[in-house]
Amino acid sequence: MSQDTQPTSAIDDFKHAMRRLTATVSLVTTIEGENRYGMVATAVCSLGVAPPSLLISVAHTASLHDPLMRSRRFGVNMLSTEQSFLVGPFSGMVKGKERFAFGEWIRSCHGLPRLLGAQASVFCDVAQTFEHSGHTVVIGTVIETIYQDAIRPLLYENGRFVRSEVLESAPIANR
Domain Flavin reductase like: where (predicted)? Predict the structure, then answer.
């Protein structure tokens, strides 16, 4: 609990704390038959490198959820700062396949929707899932990765989009 504010509940405190967690905005996609599905996500993180793997969280209510659970394959298209216009359509303002009328989409070599111009696109097979708090946590094993040379990720912080900026400080060892 912050000494500067009076809490209304543990949930409100948690929400306020999470507004300080800056995250890259991604579009998670899958395909089932000829139908494409996609949603905006900030709950994406690398999990390991041996094997390369990602973790995503998908609400049970998301239109992508059930097709993803059946297809067992997904893509994470990390947005660039120039692609903020895609957030509205993929966060519910547009329904179903009409979302893919926004942006330039092609099929990855594994058949998944790939956004051209994305900072990076990582395609995965579902390795494991578990349920928690109305979400399915999905661990994916990476099957293909595509990325841009220029790094300009679209970030979400405190309820708005922001850019990253290099800080002048002591060098950090390469990961």
Answer: 18-163
The torsion angle over the Cα atoms of residues 77, 80, 84 and 87, rounded to 10 degrees, is 10
Alpha-carbon distance 168 to 75, whole Å? 34
- For residue range 64-111, what is the model confidence (pLDDT) as tens digits? 999 999 999 999 999 999 999 999 999 999 999 999 999 999 999 899
Spell out the domains of the chain, with CATH numbers in brackets.
22-157 (2.30.110.10)
1: three-class secondary structure by DSSP: coil
Quick check: bond before 51 cis, omega within 30?
Answer: yes
Q: Which residues, at least 6 apart from 151, have a Cβ–Cβ distance to it below 8 Å?
A: 119, 164
The tokens for 39 are 């949603």
pLDDT tens sequence across 123-132: 999 999 999 9
